[in-house]
Amino acid sequence: MLAGRAPGVAVVLAPSGAVAGVDVRGAPFGTRELDLLDPSALVRHVHAVVLADGLASANGVVRWLSERNHGFPVGPRPHEVVPIVPAAAVGDDPVDRGYAACEDAGAEVPGAIVVVGRVAAALVVVDADLTKAECRRVAMTAHDGLARAGVRVPATVFALATGNPTGAVLDDLCVTATEAVQRAATA
Asked: What does the similarity note say (predicted)?
């Protein structure tokens, strides 16, 4: 996984796919493809997660991944893919800076990323092999990190698992994720 940034957007790329979960509390400003993160949904992996000032930036991330043939296969050819890119917006900026954030990607993913606007969005990465339901549990717990940091606005929190079979205990991952989100929100 790689992280990238551009003004008003942060993206975590998982071109080979990663399991993700989400927890939404309050009325989010804007979201995209969150229903695909439900454990009952057919799609198992996401290819990126976007936190941005506006949902338009997710379009650039989808374009960047498509150009590199990363996504959910919808046909027999390598380029016949649909990238799965859940996103949360903290504002209504109509400018697409997602492609630029992908071009910037290369930095190792920090433990957590938090973006605050009229609402908040956060993403935490855990080094473990988890199911979508377990990722959702991590996201729900990590939400507490925002409250501990004094962020008291509606928020969307994503949890992304690396897929590494580390044998980590779910409760320990939840504690670590909460602390990472708290640190990122106060940084």
From this structure: Belongs to the peptidase S58 family.
To the nearest 10 degrees (0 to 180), the angle between helices 132-148 and 170-186 is 40
Question: How many whole angstroms separate alpha carbon 155 and alpha carbon 162?
Answer: 23
* Residues 6+ away with beta carbon under 8 Å from 126: 135, 138, 159, 160, 161, 162, 168, 173, 176, 177
pLDDT in tens, 21-79: 999 999 888 999 999 999 999 899 999 999 999 999 999 999 999 999 999 999 999 88
Output helix, strand, coil percentages for the chain, rounded to the nearest 5.
Answer: 30, 30, 35
Residue pair 130/25 in contact by the 8 Å Cβ criterion: no
159 sits in which H/E element: strand 155-161
Classify the C-alpha dihedral 177-183-185-187 as positive or negative. Answer: negative
pTM assigned to the model = 0.95
Cα(62)–Cα(80) distance, rounded to whole angstroms?
A: 13
b/e string for 127-141 if b means 16 or more Cβ within 10 A? ebebebebbbbbbbb
Q: What is the CATH number of the domain that holds 103?
A: 3.60.70.12
Domain housing 97: 2-186
> How many structural domains does the chain have?
1
